[in-house]
Amino acid sequence: MDEIAPDIERRTRPRHHGDPWDLFGIYVRNFAFTVLTLGVYRFWAKTHVRRYLWSHTSFEDDRLEYTGTGKELFLGILIVFGVLTVALVAYTVAFSLIWPDWFDDAELQVLYNTPLMIGTIVLVGIARFRARRYRLSRTLWRGIRGAQTGSAIEYGFRELAYWLLTVLTLGFYWPYMSVRLTGYKLNNTWFGDRRFAFDGVGDALLGRFALCWLLTLPTLGMCWFWYRAATLRYVASRTRYEGLRFETNVDGRSLMWLVGTNMLLSTFTLGLASAYVMIRIANFVTENLEIVGEQDFAGIAQSLKPLPGTGEGLADAFDVGEF
């Protein structure tokens, strides 16, 4: 009797086709225009780099498309700086009316700065979430765009609460914080009219975290590359999109090599190797990611989620935006 062959899951990888010299030309042009415009052009510069990286990344032989604009990023930072400036001035004036001599009193200075520190943590979380929402809304594949739902304000306060728990537990809440924040983002991430799903739990990483915590001094901190790699593998394995699941074979050694050599390249070339570094990162991500399963992409409809009108102003203000 013939044996029945087991089903073989379909495995595909995204690919990156960028060339460091092409991207270097974009960096040179961006640098020249940024200097000539006293820094204003940097929003358009970031847009040009993203368009190149997106358009040279493909899946199923179709390339990504980035539709964001420099104008959206520029308007975003103007609005945010205006709002933050007004809020800070109003807070300082109100505080000064209650405690006129606060600037000469150390205890009152602590009282003044504490709400600012707490507010900064919340705002940084909000900034990261809103930046992700903007990038996804401007990312298309086969004409279908991504989306990020959920509340940026809720995410910001979650980050504050999780950081507090992490400090109180001497860092041991970190696996729970990272998994829960990742889950909030991924469970509110959409491609077209379909949502991603993530079901990871912090318990799965706690043992590795405890081991790495103990090995930090003996390994001069290098063990954290192995922990980060394990986290990436776990997050990928617990993420789904319809009939697809994700795998990555990143390990600590390859991650340490990538980060270490990129730092050396950036430092000893005074930033001239930035284009090469960016291409290396894109290649590393795509070469180590596998998408497993079958999905009828033709059945996915366009996302009807509202588009943010401006760019990542808050992320730019706190310098937590990504490339």
3D structure, described in words:
The protein is α+β, with helices and mostly antiparallel strands and 323 residues long. Helices cover 58% and strands 13% of the residues. It has 11 helices and 11 strands. The chain has an 11-stranded antiparallel sheet. It is globular and about 70 Å long.
Number of helices: 11
In one word, what is the shape? globular
Task: Name the helix and strand elements from N-terminus to C-terminus, one letter apiece.
Answer: EEHHEEHHEEHHEEHHEEHHEH
Mean pLDDT: 91
Percentage of β-strand residues: 5-15%
| Proportion of residues in helical segments | 55-70%
**Main β-sheet description:** 11 strands, antiparallel
Note the gap between the termini: 58 Å
Q: Runs with pLDDT <50, length 5+?
A: none
Radius of gyration: 22 Å
Structural class: alpha+beta
- The total strand number stands at 11
Going across the major beta sheet, what is the strand order?
1-11-10-9-8-7-6-5-4-3-2
Keywords:
single chain; 323 residues; alpha+beta; 11-stranded antiparallel beta sheet; 11 helices; 13% strand
What is this structure's SSE topology?
Blueprint: E1 11-12, E2 15-16, H1 20-36, H2 42-55, E3 57-59, E4 62-66, H3 70-98, H4 106-137, E5 139-141, E6 144-148, H5 152-168, H6 174-186, E7 189-191, E8 194-198, H7 203-215, H8 223-237, E9 239-241, E10 244-248, H9 252-268, H10 274-287, E11 289-293, H11 313-317
Antiparallel strand pairs: 1-11, 2-3, 3-4, 4-5, 5-6, 6-7, 7-8, 8-9, 9-10, 10-11
